[in-house]
Amino acid sequence: QLVQIIINTTHLEQSCKYLEDFITNITNVSPETVHTTKLYGTSTFKDARHTAEEEIYTKLHQKIDEFLQLADYDWMLPEPNGHASDYLMDLINFLRSTFAVFTHLPGKVAQTACMSASKHLASRLLQQILDVEVKQVTMGAIQQFNLDLVQCELFASSEPVPGLQGDTLQLAFIDLRQLLDLFMVWDWSTYLADYGHPNNKYLRVNPNTALILLEKMKDHTRKSNIFAQFRKNERDKQKLIETVAKQLRSLANGTAHHS
After folding, report:
1. pTM of the predicted model, to two decimals?
2. Quick one: signal sequence residues (predicted)?
3. How far is CA 30 from CA 38, 39, 133, in A?
4. I want to staple 102 with a disulfide (CB 3.0 to 4.6 A). Which of 3, 22, 76, 110 is the partner?
């Protein structure tokens, strides 16, 4: 319905010029007087269209939130289960069918809606893994979460609406992609050494965000290795986590002071 409203008001707005000419011809009223009417009509239709556009963005966000309420991540998963979450695949199918309808909209409206929806989805996914209610996270859970992100990236790269150039839509997920890559590769030496450099491969990873997730893994490491705490590899891993956490706190405090 919103799509149809936008299409209708766009046509009505564009027709105001012809209406101006028609009224002038049949009434002999001065073009200046009719032009005022045209401006009022054009403005009215434009306002209606903008309202409908904003409502589309809002409704899309609400629908994404509804799907995310169905998410049921097992954050203590020892290994990924090998496929993306059902709710996430249903969400992407919904977005694909929705944006297929948007082909009837003016190009920029469809592109803005798609980018807005992608950014909202990426933000909500990040909130899922950083949620204060999530006390512990395993590497298996992060790898499983990554399978969902991969599906989001595939969706973004498929040009769901025409006109989005290159990897524009994929950039909506770049913060989450760099965060998960940092943890899955366990690439702390690179992150810490290159922090603050413009060519840092983890440029979009905020140290405070990384610290929040690392703390969740630290808790898991402690609790799952009560009887293995004297094993050298476990002691070394625990020491590394503590060292990285300390450095991240330092970076986070520096960022806070700087800002």
Report:
1. 0.78
2. none
3. 13, 15, 69
4. 110
